[in-house]
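Work Package 4 report. The design task specified in the project plan requires that, given a folded chain encoded as structure tokens, an amino acid be chosen for each position. We show below one input record used in the internal validation round.
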């Protein structure tokens, strides 16, 4: 009798331990994702798909929580938290990663590629994977995927812009990475770095004269209320990545590491194709709000910004990447 009771007790104890382990797993493996984007940005739908698909693929063992509108702080602060081992991730451009691995900066260089298909070839290439390994080993940051395309960036101003000469004296917000500030300076404006969340009030109060961004971000930040013109320069093809802590990822069971990377790549495609499909509608929406959208000959801007590659030592790399994008 005691023999059967002991067996039953052992079995119940094992079941309880199993349930506790499952609960701990779900509680321990939580990834908090920060993004400057608003929830109505097409890219955010990709993040929602990422969270849902990771939960399904991991049988609930891994939870992804989303924090739009930079709720966890500026991108740079979240990157530092990730480097310290915190289970956080951030949607970030290559320019902000260039301080750790210089090659990442070229992804934000002017007129590198147009549209999503070409730039996707670049960020899934063997060459890019070498940069990602260096970022992992040298900076403690893991690239979950880098195929989160936000569209081409354009000039947002209160006056008509037809060429570089029109940008003389224009204080233009841009991210603070050298590839971004160098591009805007080469285009003829005065680069003025500041957080994206401050752009609306800064333009409204004439602290700056304009900004540059992709159309989904313009709508998300309601900049149609403070600008009058968008000039379709397409000077930067904004490809971003989902970056997290290398130490945290390495601590996960191998199957969860695989799930994170595979689902991030799939979700990046969902986000990017959603952006592609939304652009025409967003352009019409901005026109309906009274914004003048100018289509111009961008050749003078291409010629003016070509120097950025050589200034930053990316001349040879540009040729390699443009060849990959053209394949």
């Amino acid at each position: 009798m005691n023999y059967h009771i002991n067996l039953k007790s052992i079995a119940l104890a094992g079941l309880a331990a199993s349930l506790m382990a499952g609960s701990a797993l779900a509680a321990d493996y939580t990834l908090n994702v920060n993004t400057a984007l608003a929830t109505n940005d097409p890219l955010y739908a990709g993040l929602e798909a990422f969270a849902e698909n990771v939960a399904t693929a991991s049988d609930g063992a891994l939870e992804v929580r989303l924090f739009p509108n930079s709720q966890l702080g500026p991108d740079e602060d979240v990157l530092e938290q990730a480097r310290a081992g915190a289970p956080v991730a951030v949607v970030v451009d290559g320019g902000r990663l260039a301080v750790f691995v210089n090659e990442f900066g070229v992804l934000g260089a002017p007129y590198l590629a147009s549209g999503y298909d070409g730039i996707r070839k670049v960020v899934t290439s063997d060459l890019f994977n070498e940069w990602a390994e260096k970022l992992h080993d040298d900076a403690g940051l893991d690239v979950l995927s880098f195929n989160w395309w936000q569209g081409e960036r354009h000039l947002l101003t209160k006056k008509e812009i037809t060429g570089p000469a029109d940008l003389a004296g224009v204080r233009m917000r841009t991210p603070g990475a050298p590839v971004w500030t160098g591009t805007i300076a080469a285009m003829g404006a005065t680069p003025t770095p500041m957080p994206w969340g401050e752009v609306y009030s800064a333009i409204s109060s004439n602290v700056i004269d304009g900004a540059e961004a992709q159309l989904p971000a313009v709508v998300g930040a309601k900049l149609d209320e403070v600008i009058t013109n968008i000039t379709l320069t397409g000077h930067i093809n904004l490809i971003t990545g989902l970056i997290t802590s290398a130490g945290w990822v390495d601590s996960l069971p191998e199957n969860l590491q695989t799930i994170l990377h595979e689902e991030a790549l799939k979700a990046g495609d969902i986000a990017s194709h959603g952006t592609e499909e939304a652009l025409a509608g967003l352009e019409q929406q901005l026109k309906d709000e009274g914004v003048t959208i100018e289509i111009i000959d961008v050749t003078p801007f291409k010629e003016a910004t070509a120097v950025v590659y050589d200034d930053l030592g990316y001349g040879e790399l540009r040729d390699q990447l443009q060849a990959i994008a053209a394949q």
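The beta strands are 30-34, 63-67, 88-93, 141-157, 171-173, 190-192, 210-214, 229-245, 292-294. Validation will be extended to a larger panel in the next phase.
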